[in-house]
Amino acid sequence: MGRFQTIDRQKEHQFPAIINEWIPENHQARFIVEAVDKLNLSKITQQYKGSGTLPYNPKMMLSLLIYSYSIGVFSSRQIEQATYESIPTRFITANDHPDHSTIAEFRRRFHKEFEDIFVQVLELAHEMKLLKLGQVSVDGTKLHANASRHSALSYGHIEKLKKQFQQEVEQLMEKAKNAEQHKIPEDMNVLDEIQLREERIALMEKAQRKIERRAEERYQREKAEYERKMMKRLLKEKESGKKSKRKLPEAPESTPRDKDQINLTDEESRIMKCSGGAFEQCYNAQAAVDTDSYLIVSAHVTQAANDKQQVAPMLEELRTLPERLGAVNSALMDAGYFSEENVELCEKIGIEPYIAVGRESHHLDVMSRFTEPDKLPDDASTSQKMRHKLKTKKGRAIYSLRKSTVEPVFGIIKSVMGFRQFSLRSLEKVNGEWDLVCLSWNLKRMAKLCQRTVFCG
After folding, report:
1. What is the pLDDT of residues 164-223, one digit of tens each?
2. Which residues does residue 333 pair with via DSSP β-bridges, in sequence order?
3. Are 105 and 80 in contact (CB under 8 A)?
4. What is the pTM of this model?
5. Which long-range contacts (CB under 8 A, 24 or more apart) does 220-227 make?
6. DSSP line for 251-271
7. Angle of helix 155-177 relative to helix 190-240, nearest 10 degrees?
8. Beta bridge partners of 331
9. Are 341 and 224 in contact, with CB atoms under 8 Å apart?
10. Which of 81, 149, 259, 260 has the smallest CB count inside 10 Å?
């Protein structure tokens, strides 16, 4: 064995004495620590009481979470393990080892504050000359909830199960009354079996009441939309003096539908159709991505599988961003966002919309890329105007940026960072976790951009 190096596990470590020298100057962990040091975390620090054992510094805990999410480590137990095994993580924690319950509690407790931190990171990117708002690309992606679709029950199925359990309770009570006449298995406790079914019936009745409340809320929303459409139809008929030939809007139902579902693990998540055609328990995560820097500038999570209703909340979030970041002048969206109301809403606030009206072929005729479309008629509808705009050379060039910005960002978040499922439950908490994911992506992206520019030295 003389031809090999000697294995000596007793030799002294070769690390520098100062932990600050353990990683290179341009390492992502160092960038995140320096960025977080510049943030104002007063909304977090003021929530700590001045008694008991000194808590870990929030800047260290936040840096730890951001770095862990940026490299695809989301479990609090795995993050704790990394504080022992990962050199960059040990650098972030300064060789401290917060346990998994402390990490999980920090993430759960301050999920609301992540929204403010997300905006502060955008301001930091602006100061570093990495971000100047102008054109954004908007899209949504389905992310698994921290719940199984097998824990979901539909309103109609609950009714069937309730009847089944009620019949079984009656049968068991009959057996208990006439134990001598009925042959009862030795290992069967009839009273326990009755109690189990009564508890399940109570649980299902509670779930039904929640579905009924949701149905009432949905009815009120749909009723308002129905009345708005009918009023718009009547006004058009009055102006034209002719009866509209379009199909009447369908009146909403006030009662729950048999297919209305609730999940017993995370009741605020929903069954959604994912890519590939499978139905899973999910949330719909939305993001607006700056087409120049690939930074996410607005983000939220919704329970709605359809994207059409997400334009208004996204525009409101963009409108409330700090003025010094600049103003959004155009928004690129796929066909899932198209409606006349959404186009009008964008134009009303001064944002030029580029929204696909429907699916188009991936392999267009070669000449279509070099020609302008025919002139629009004077009475063109909103959809005709949008189709025409996207067929112009300028429109095609701008809209083509959509796929090359927001979709790659989602691809990196889901496939490189590995974030495909939320760890927290409830709409409010997953919104906080999505903010954490997006600000982790932004800092990861900023660290990479800083390696290419002189403004981040």
Report:
1. 999 999 888 887 777 666 677 778 888 888 899 999 999 989 989 989 998 898 889 888
2. 355
3. no
4. 0.86
5. 222/252, 223/252, 226/250, 226/251, 226/252
6. PPPSSPPTT-EEESS-TT-EE
7. 160
8. 136, 353
9. no
10. 259
